[in-house]
Write a structure and sequence with these properties.
There is one protein chain. By secondary structure, this protein is an alpha/beta fold. The chain has 3 domains: 55 residues, no CATH class; 58 residues; 316 residues, 3-Layer(aba) Sandwich (Aminopeptidase), CATH 3.40.630.40. The chain contains 15 helices and 13 strands. The strands form 4 sheets. It has a 7-stranded mixed β-sheet with strand order 1-12-9-13-6-2-3. Strands 4-5 form a two-stranded antiparallel ribbon. Helix 5 packs antiparallel against helix 6, helix 7 crosses helix 8 and helix 8 packs across helix 12. The longest helix is centred in the first third of the chain and has 37 residues. The chain is globular. 33% of the residues are buried. It comes from Blautia intestinihominis.
């Protein structure tokens, strides 16, 4: 061996022992030794930068506000905000009461009785806004007996509509109805993200995790990781520009006769159409959208319930409306689900008993027949993105509200627009009020997707 080679070997040995001296733990314990090498670190950082560079908006959108510890932190912040609001309301009430007392003392003796009466009226109307809001909510809840969702073909059987009485005070709308509806959006705006599952991009990139947390696949169809790519679904821009002069949302009910456990027979407001009426009110008054609410009975034939061709009838009818109103960008088919009688799909949101919802997507593909060319839908991926983005918002703000996205083999008229969705709100075992309450968080997550 030449002198030069000996020198090189000596230098390499010294370099090796120098590295070993600096990082002995990794080498001795054999814990990812390669991660200590400069070349690996360089490539690892470069790969992370490339991922963000390819789709920085989606990456930032997913990462924002989502870590394992975020839920606890946000819950604590929500409690602090609620405490501050309650304190402010209490102080305001006390201040107004003191003002009333001072005004009463200034009244002349001959006018004392009349002044006190006026003061009492003022206190009742103004002193306690929190109490007034509570009364408004109570009136609105009494009014929410109008909803009925429906089942989907191929996975649900025709159910017997229950006939039980429900308390209902829905005659003349009081002047407080509008502030009451406005109160709903104020409550939605105060909600902060509090996810209970990991929504990080790395975790959502795991196909098995995504399926377990968000999707339910019907036995007659199938899907794959290419079709359900979380980054791509969340990255699609589904926002729209509000235009108060033109209709932008079309709401209808393929199964218009679906009712609830306490629905009164023959009372339209106790069916899914009544639920749609309330959703229309929320979207119009709270969020500024123009909504066309179709209340046609597509599932009635000669006065009898017949759902065998309801989707065909609905599709033909809706195509005419969409041709006449090209400004419509969102199409919602509002149903209720059919479940075993001992199952109750309910949670609590903003202090209200609220029916849970499920999104329903058609893939125009069955295992037995493959692609269903006679039911073409160029918007399958758009439909999936629309459902998934709403489910993603629900996972952040209303973790107990959503049941999943059901993937079925047929089309269900979701080909009418890219932003088409079929929603199952509650089931036949829910009350009218529970399903109507569900429209408040649903309107919120819908608006977040359309305006985010």
């Amino acid at each position: 061996m030449t002198r030069t080679r000996k020198t090189i070997c000596t230098l390499m040995c010294l370099a090796f022992f120098a590295v070993l001296a600096v990082m002995p733990g990794s080498f001795i314990l054999q814990k990812n030794v390669y991660r200590q090498l400069p070349l690996f670190r360089f490539l690892e950082r470069k790969a992370a930068r490339d991922f963000q560079r390819k789709d920085p908006d989606t990456y930032a959108k997913i990462v924002e506000n989502h870590t394992e510890s975020l839920g606890a932190m946000v819950e604590k912040e929500n409690e602090e905000v609620r405490d501050e609001q309650e304190k402010a309301v209490a102080e305001n009430s006390v201040g107004q009461a003191e003002d009333v007392e001072r005004k009463t003392e200034d009244v002349e003796p001959t006018e004392t009785t009349e002044g006190v009466k006026k003061t009492e009226s003022t206190v009742t109307a103004e002193a306690e806004p929190g109490q007034a809001q509570t009364e408004i909510k109570t009136k609105e809840e009494d009014k929410q007996q109008q909803k009925e969702p429906s089942e989907d073909e191929n996975i649900k059987q025709t159910e017997k509509d229950s006939e039980k009485e429900t308390d209902k005070s829905q005659q003349d709308k009081p002047a407080t109805v509008i502030p009451e509806v406005t109160q709903t959006i104020l409550a939605s705006n105060s909600i902060q993200p509090a996810p209970r599952i990991d929504l990080s991009p790395q975790t959502l990139a795991d196909y098995d995790y995504l399926m377990n947390q968000f999707f339910i696949v019907d036995s007659q169809t199938t899907t794959n990781a290419d079709q359900l790519n979380a980054a791509e679904l969340l990255g699609e821009d589904l926002t729209i520009q509000k235009d108060a002069a033109k209709p932008q949302i079309l709401l209808y009910h393929t199964h218009s006769q679906e009712a609830f456990v306490d629905s009164k027979e023959g009372e339209v407001e106790d069916t899914i159409i009544g639920v749609g009426n309330y959703l229309t009110e929320l979207l119009t008054k709270n969020y500024g959208y123009q909504v066309i609410h179709v209340t046609e009975a597509f599932d009635m034939e000669s006065g009898e319930l017949d759902r065998s061709a309801a989707y065909d009838y609905a599709g033909t009818y809706l195509e005419t409306i969409l041709e006449e109103n090209p400004s419509i960008e969102v199409v919602i088919d509002l149903h209720r689900d059919g479940v075993p009688e001992n199952r109750h799909l309910v949670t609590e949101i903003n202090g209200k008993s609220t029916a849970q919802i499920m999104f329903y997507n058609g893939l125009s593909y069955t295992i037995a027949r493959g692609s269903l060319d006679y039911l073409p839908n160029p918007y399958i991926q758009d439909n999936l993105a629309f459902s998934f983005q709403m489910e993603y918002q629900a996972a952040q703000y209303y973790p107990d509200f959503y049941r999943g996205i059901y993937l079925a083999g047929y089309r269900y008229n979701l080909h009418l627009r890219p932003r088409s969705v079929l929603v199952e709100a509650g089931a036949q075992t829910n009350t009218v009020q529970e399903v109507k309450n569900a429209m408040e968080p649903f309107a919120d997550i819908l608006n977040r997707v359309l305006q985010d």
